[in-house]
Amino acid sequence: MNYGAGDPRDQLAHVGSEVVRAGLVVGSGGNLSARVSGNGDFWVTAAGTWLDRLDRSAFVRVRIADGATVSDDTHPPTSELPLHLATYRRRPDVAAIVHLHPQAVLLLDALGEQIRLVTTDHAFYLRRVVTTPFRLPGTAELADEAAAAAADGTNCVILSRHGCSVVADSVELAHKRALYLEEAARLTYQALALGRAGTLPDCPPEFVRAVEAGTQSTV
Questions:
Q1: Three-class SS of residue 123?
Q2: What is the pLDDT of residues 119-158, one digit of tens each?
Q3: How many structural domains compose the chain?
């Protein structure tokens, strides 16, 4: 899949297929969106779509300014449209949003356990993870909480008992962050199952400082 060019709907369809294959999604547990380059619109998955069965017809084009549907489509957008709108309005640097219901992330949230950023990949791609209080799905309250949590540059937001909102300046990077968030959650859970979560260290601080200083990359 070439993430660098082409219709963003094709890129999002690829993400949908891959996150289901990776076990991050069951059924239609999530929704995806991407800005239209050079425009004030974005494509978002239609209501009830299965993420591993997406094609271009499964997306609805929406105007960021007022939330109006501008595509010639009779399908309504996802019920989480307010989440996407609020985030794009607060974060003009964000080009893609991956909202999923990943199992390990949500299990740790239900247990009140913080996800540890154990590896250099976690530290580099995720930086930090913020959890918002429970709000009813699809509501303006949930959307406002998520957008406020991301307003300072946070790119991984856990919506308590509901899912995650992972954002980036490209579809590819949002996809990577979603994968690493669930990997970090699974490693944390494994440490918890071994009775070692309390002693599980985060990524070495010297690496984190180098990432924050912009002198460290990863492959």
A1: helix
A2: 999 999 999 999 999 999 999 999 999 999 999 999 999 9
A3: 1
CATH number at residue 187: 3.40.225.10
**b/e map of 108-117 (b: 16 or more CB within 10 Å)?**
bbeeeeebbb
Looking at the domain assignment, is residue 3 inside a domain? no
Task: State the Cα angle at 116 between 111 and 119, rounded to 5°.
Answer: 150
Please name the residues in contact with 63: beta carbons below 8 A apart, sequence gap of 6 or more.
40, 41, 69, 70
Domain enclosing residue 53, as ranges: 8-213
Distance of CA 19 to the CA centre of its chain: 11
pLDDT of 139 = 97
Specify which residues 42 forms β-bridges with.
Answer: 35, 62
In a domain, 12, yes or no: yes
Q: Is the pLDDT of residue 181 over 80?
A: yes
**Residue 62, SS3 per DSSP:** strand
Which residue carries 């299965």 as its tokens?
A: 50
